[in-house]
Design a protein that fits this description.
By secondary structure, the protein is an alpha+beta fold. The chain contains eight helices and 14 strands. The strands form four sheets. It has a six-stranded antiparallel β-sheet. Strands 4-7-6-5 form a four-stranded antiparallel β-sheet. α1 crosses α5 and α3 crosses α4.
Length: 300
Amino acid sequence: MAKIRTFEVDRWSEPDEKHRVKHIGMADARETFDKLKTHLETNGLLPDEYFSFSGKYEGLTGELPEFEEALCIPNFGSSEGIYLDISLACRDGDGKRYFQSFATGKTLGETADDYFRMFRIAAECSLMLNGRGFSYERNNVDIVLTEKEAKAVANSVELDLCGYLKPESEALLSSALGKFNGAPRTAIQTITCHGRDDYALWNVEIPSDMFRSIVREAAEKIGTLEELMSGMDPTSGCEMRLLTRMKDGRFAFFTIPERMNALRDYETQGSSTRGDKEQIMAEIFTDWEPAEEPEDELDR
């Protein structure tokens, strides 16, 4: 059993001598969107085309408006794909209801499976925004298998897990069983420069959606590993960089978005090594491979 803690979107005063509190405002709109996007990434629920803060186009800055409910509605759009529109139902000074646009998402596919998945994403967004800081128990785990994966699982059970599986069936079974561990994850490497010839290498797995969000932005630098490490400036605050390897053998550095909080949610996971440049380069060029991303992603 797990508990889901929803977002606290209201701000309250400190209790007075009679333990009473007053509503003094709302959470910051952009910060709330960033929290929601990171939450979807962490749970493998980020729409694969985009998920953007639409409130900025309607002048939504600073605090959220005081809203009655967040409406999270998936639907087919005028072009390909499935869309998710999130708006906040509010009341003006005269009590008239209006709707403030908050976020928009889109998926590339337009099959029934894509449609059902967008409703799952919409449900998660609705819970987080409408839960008002309460925690809810969750006992079920969502597992979505392809038809081939389902057959592979059924066949393995029929064989009582002791018969021979063809290589392609074994690969499908591995893919299916991997989904029992939750959202798909990607192994990454990060490098941090702590001072003159003083580096730290971190090997860790993060949700695949989070990895794709990082590399979706243009690479900060591309070059040989030695060039990238030599160009790191510890006076900038020892900022972490995600390292990927391109198909031509060069490497790329990506900045970790601020909303991901330097991946601190995973700081107790994985393994790390600290040493000089030569030691860290030797560690990277072992049989553990950093995450690779297609050329077209790196050139965006």
